[in-house]
Amino acid sequence: MEVRNIFEQENAKEFGKYLLRMKEKNQNFFFELNLEGDHCIKHAFWADASFMFGECTNFGLPRSRCVHLCRYNLVLGSFVDVNHHGQLTLLGCALIKNEDIQSFKWLFECWLVAWEGRHQKAF
């Protein structure tokens, strides 16, 4: 096994522990972590459900290479909304390995679970 792969596995394990600690501190914190067969991150989603208030959410995968986590071959995406003060509010984040239909299907299903099945007027 490559040294890099072991490093990725350890980081994935620590990231999972971090998400569990966040859930222990905040019952509104929601996360899903999907690992590959070699225990590296395939998909990750996390959000603080207490901030889920809006009717219209934007999701984006920035095209900037600096947001692509090259070391792990993951892309960072974010869910944002505008609060009643007109300020952007970060609702949740995602790491995905592949920008394919299955990855987005998994991600948006996680989003609906975090929102407890409530549908928004616009996305």
Automatic annotation (TrEMBL):
Listed InterPro entries: FHY3/FAR1 (IPR031052), MULE_transposase_dom (IPR018289)
PANTHER family attached to this UniProt entry: PROTEIN FAR1-RELATED SEQUENCE, PROTEIN FAR1-RELATED SEQUENCE 10-RELATED
Source species, domain of life: Eukaryota
Taxonomic classification: Eukaryota, Viridiplantae, Streptophyta, Embryophyta, Tracheophyta
Function: Putative transcription activator involved in regulating light control of development.
Molecular function in Gene Ontology: zinc ion binding
Subcellular location: Nucleus
Short name of one Pfam family: MULE
UniProt family annotation: Belongs to the FHY3/FAR1 family.
Domain MULE transposase as annotated: residue spans: 71-116
Any one GO cellular component localisation term in the record: nucleus
GO biological process, alphabetically ordered: regulation of DNA-templated transcription
Name by which UniProt lists this protein: Protein FAR1-RELATED SEQUENCE
Keywords per UniProt: Metal-binding, Nucleus, Zinc, Zinc-finger
Predominant place of localization: nucleus
